[in-house]
Design goal:
Blueprint lengths: L15 H32 L5 H26 L14 H29 L3
Length: 124
């Protein structure tokens, strides 16, 4: 097993506690962003509830992707500052981060389209 050379500095530029705080704040902002941006579109979707496959597919898919992305990012945020040998450290952390980011961004892009369509359909 290779030992760490005490002369080499860590690549981390901030303390683990500061990294954890920044990660939790970023995660909270990622949770709040869709609600802040599309609260009107969400309320219109809820008000026009129809238990049809088309309603769920076209209206709620973007928000489902956002939620799934956030679920996949939760273990990544939780493991900030942990050693890679820690028991709570996710073994496929980079996969969770990659898929979580991809699904979240895809959901944001689709939600902006749903909001634009919902906005154009509302009477003025």
């Amino acid at each position: 097993m290779k030992r760490a050379n005490p002369l080499h500095r860590s690549k981390q530029r901030i303390a683990p506690s500061e990294a954890k705080t920044a990660g939790v704040l970023g995660f909270a902002a990622a949770v709040a962003l869709p609600v802040v941006l599309w609260h009107r579109a969400l309320s219109e979707l809820v008000a026009s509830f129809q238990p049809t496959p088309g309603y769920f597919l076209t209206g709620w898919t973007p928000f489902g992707l956002i939620a799934l992305g956030l679920v996949l990012m939760a273990p990544v945020v939780y493991s900030i500052g942990l050693s890679s040998h820690a028991r709570a450290y996710p073994r496929r952390r980079n996969v969770y981060a990659g898929w979580g980011t991809t699904l979240y961004l895809l959901g944001l892009a689709l939600a902006s389209q749903v909001a634009a369509i919902a906005h154009s359909l509302t009477p003025r």
